[in-house]
Specification:
Number of domains: 1
Distance between the termini: 28 Å
Order of helices and strands: HEEEEEEEEEEEE
Largest sheet: 10 strands, mixed
Helix content: under 10%
Number of helices: 1
Strand content: over 45%
Radius of gyration: 15 Å
Length: about 170
């Protein structure tokens, strides 16, 4: 959890310098397969859309997407996607709740979102068997997340949904 907090702070700090309705359809193996979203270089949480201006790996296995802010001195809203290993091939990743990087399997991702305007931090609940889709485009990670359940304890206990689609720059 300490690493998660440090990463959230790191994403917010990096932001100082910066950065559709979906469903899952079961395939023949009863594993959900992601359906394309209408979002592109943005994410939506609690009904609010955030446009991505910077997307990069901030650590070898953490993909961060950050929103543009009017002033470069303000922290920005951001999403962090935690992988066990940096993706090098196309594939689907199960969205899970995780306590630390060591708890992730090679085919799983954890997700954290910071919404600065209301000082909220959301984490993937991992309760809805959602699969995120990763496509490698010209050596860069394209990350597509169908709607998934997120939870927060700050500023008050709450659940909501997140969907996202952004590409590493």
């Amino acid at each position: 959890m300490k690493k998660l907090l440090i990463t959230s702070v790191l994403l917010t700090t990096l932001g100082l310098y910066a950065c559709n309705k979906t469903s899952t359809t079961p395939n023949n193996n009863n594993n959900p397969t992601p359906t394309p979203t209408t979002l592109k270089n943005e994410w939506e949480i609690k009904g609010n859309k955030y446009k991505m201006s910077l997307c990069m790996f901030i650590e070898p296995t953490i993909l961060g997407a950050m929103e543009t802010m009017p002033s470069g001195s303000n922290p920005v809203n951001n999403v962090a996607v935690y992988f066990k290993n940096k993706p090098t091939a196309n594939g689907n990743y199960k969205v899970v709740f995780y306590a630390d990087m060591d708890s992730l399997a090679a085919d799983e991702v954890g997700i954290a979102v910071n919404v600065i305007s209301n000082n909220s931090q959301y984490y993937a609940a991992g309760t809805d068997n959602v699969q995120a889709k990763v496509t490698i485009v010209n050596g860069k990670v394209d990350f597509e997340l169908p709607e998934t359940v997120m939870f927060t304890a700050q500023p008050a206990p709450d659940t909501t949904t997140l969907k996202a689609h952004f590409t590493e720059q």
